[in-house]
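Session log. Operator J.P. requested a structure for one protein chain; no other inputs attached. Running the standard single-chain path with C-alpha cell output.
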Amino acid sequence: MTDEQKRKKKFLNRELPVFAFFLLLSFVFWYLNELSKDLHGTINYPVRYINPPKDRIVTGDLPDKLEMDLRGPGYSILKVKLSGSRAPVVIDFSKLAPRRLPGAMPQYYLLTSGLINNFSKQMHADFEILAIQPDTLFFGYDKLVTRRKPVRPDLKIELAEGRKVIIVPDPDSITVIGPAHILDTLDGIPTRHRNFKRTDENFKSKVPLVCPDYLQTTQKRVTVEVTISGKSSSFFGLKHDKAN
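Structure written below.
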C-alpha cells in the first residue's frame, strides 16, 4: 500500500464517524420537525361497556377495541401509539339513547360518530378523532336471571380391562347468573378437561370449571370423586364386587 493510499484510509477512518454523527443528528432534527406538524394516523383503542339497564345484560358481539382515525400533532399521535397500557375508553349505556331496530327480538344500535366528543374528553386528547370504526355497534339487552345448573365432569381416566369408573362432582350443581336466553338452553357447566393415567385407586381431585365470561358462578372449582369398581378401596372404606 502506497503512502497516498495510507493517508486516504486514515482520513476516511477519522472522518467517517464524524459524518455518521452529523447524519444522525440531521435525521433527529428532521424527525422532531415532522412530529411538530399535523399528521394523520390510526390506532386500535380498547373500550369497556358499563351500566346496562337494571337487571339487564348487554348481548351481542361488541368489539373490545375500536379503530380510531386521528389527526393532530405528530408527537401526540406517536405518544398514544407507543403507550403500552392504555386505559380503555368507556361506553356508559346509562348516558346513551340507543336506537331500536324493528323486529320481534329487541335489538339496538349506536352510531360511533356520536361518541367522538366523549372519547376525546376521556383520552384528554390534543388531537382530533376524525372517525371510528366500526361506524355502528349492534347489541341487545337480555334479562339477567339466576339458575341452578348441573356440573358436567370432563375427565378421561385410563382403566385396566374389566374395571369401571364412577365420577361424581361435589357439588353436583352450582348457581349461575347470566342472560335468560343462554341459561334457558344451557345443559350444564363443564369442568376443564383432565387426563388421568391408568389407576386402580379411588381418588379426589379439584378441577376448575369452564365458564364463559358473560356468566357468573358461585364458585370456580369443584371436587370430583372418582371411584374405581372391582377392588377394595381404603379411600372409601368399601369393598366392591369384582367386575366380570
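Operator note: Helices lie at 3-35, 74-82, 116-123, 180-183.
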